[in-house]
Amino acid sequence: MIRSFDKYLQSLKPKYDDDIVDRCNYLLTNMMILICAITVAAKQYVGEPLQCWVPAEFQDSWEQYIENFCFIENTYFVPFADDIPMNATERNQHKIQYYQWIPFILILQALLFLLPRTIWTMFNWRTGLNIQTIVDAAILTRKVDKKRCLKQRTENREDSFAQAQQIAYVMDFNRRKNQCMKLLGKLIFTYK
């Protein structure tokens, strides 16, 4: 019972076989886009999606009908200084057609940001290789290599220190030998 519970807890533990850029790509970006999509969808489908200018004598039901009509049929943009064009083709040139689709486009973008991670996980699962095990082994090898490297460095320093002591001993011997030779030379040449 405890083993199965432990396995369940291990499956809940996040498995990082990616880096921080990948996580930002499929987690943070995804969350921000979904929050924007929910906000826009709530405004469009729960609140009032847009405000159309209607004559003041229109009743509330007429105004609601016009706003629903404007939302379903596209609207067009006319600057304040210009007059509303009477020609339908001229109005269609300034049509705004995208605003109804913004929540759906944002959700599609969120799914597309999640797609590389899903494909990677699916291919990883189908190959039979467990990338997490490989990554853990690489981390362990790196730690072992670090310990071995420190041990090797310490041994090299000890060897270098021993060689430096031998060189210092030889140099000291040569210095003393030279002093003895000078002294011996002075003694021989002064007493002749």
Automatic annotation (TrEMBL):
TM spans (from-to): 98-116
Organism for this UniProt entry: Brugia malayi (Filarial nematode worm)
Pfam families in alphabetical order: Innexin
Entry function: Structural component of the gap junctions.
UniProtKB keywords: Cell junction, Cell membrane, Gap junction, Ion channel, Ion transport, Membrane, Transmembrane, Transmembrane helix, Transport
Molecular-function GO term, any one: gap junction channel activity
Alphabetized PROSITE patterns for the sequence: PANNEXIN
Family: Belongs to the pannexin family.
Keyword presence, Transport: yes
One biological process term in Gene Ontology: monoatomic ion transmembrane transport
Protein name (record): Innexin
InterPro entries recorded: Innexin
Taxonomic lineage of the native organism: Eukaryota, Metazoa, Ecdysozoa, Nematoda, Chromadorea
Chief place where the protein resides: other
Location within or outside the cell: Cell junction, Gap junction; Cell membrane
